[in-house]
Fold each of these.
Amino acid sequence: MDNNRKLSRRSLLGRATLLAGAGLAASLMPTKHAFAQQKATKETVKYQDTPKGDQRCSNCSQFDPPASCKVVDGAINPNGYCIVWVKKA
């Protein structure tokens, strides 16, 4: 019998582990579909049409003039507010 073609149980398990790891890594790789994310609903982010002190959509880094948001779905009032407000730099 040729010893070069004989596989030990250890080498077989090692190769199986390597293949399983490669399969897992390939499934975790980002695809074009992973970049398309849904926006949050107004209810989820507790959106309101009035500001909270000096925190308002118009001075939030997520605000996209004239009336939309990068994070929240639907029309946005520039004087509105939600919990994902982030001060514009």
Amino acid sequence: MLVQDIRSEPVLLPTWIMAYRYRDRVYRFVANGQTGKATGHSPVSWRKFFLAVALVALAPILLTAAA
């Protein structure tokens, strides 16, 4: 079998690649510039997460007590 007359066009899409170190652990992040789809993991501070949840839960109580 002989393959002849093959044509292709290069497709250049913007892609952003980021790697960073946080607390001696490497995190990688890739974003597709055309679709906006992102992959990767980020460090999570559970202390800040639970603080934010507590503030959201307490906000209606504090707002009704102030009124």
